[in-house]
Amino acid sequence: MAHGIPPQGKVSITVDEYSSNPTQAFTHYNINQSRFQPPHVHMVDPIPYDTPKPAGHTRFVCISDTHSRTDGIQMPYGDILLHTGDFTELGLPSEVKKFNDWLDLVSHCKHGRNPNA
């Protein structure tokens, strides 16, 4: 028996009140985002990109949805780069190559050689 499933095999699923209206759902949840924030998670303010990293700490640099627009991004020094979301606009091979070249550049210029580490 799977965890949380009654022995009869029936599960009751509540349909979200906004499931038939995606625009209204986006507006509602965009305004009420804290509704989904677990109580043990605390929001933090970003620190300036050039803030020195304290000794013994690991700095994660998180970016997302660059959509082939990596030119001009001020990347902070960091140990680990996390990129989530779309990194191309159309998924073209030339966009993938451009992104890969950019990753190589930031890994050599910033993440691997932090003068404040």
From TrEMBL:
- Top-rank taxon: Eukaryota
Stored SUPFAM superfamilies = Metallo-dependent phosphatases
Q: Which InterPro entries match?
A: Metallo-depent_PP-like, UPF0046_metallophosphoest
Q: Which PANTHER family match?
A: METALLOPHOSPHOESTERASE (PTHR12905), METALLOPHOSPHOESTERASE MPPED2 (PTHR12905:SF13)
Question: Per its record, how is this protein called by name?
Answer: Metallophosphoesterase domain containing 2
Whose protein is this, by species? Answer: Suricata suricatta
Lineage of producing organism:
Eukaryota, Metazoa, Chordata, Craniata, Vertebrata
Task: Report the gene name.
Answer: MPPED2
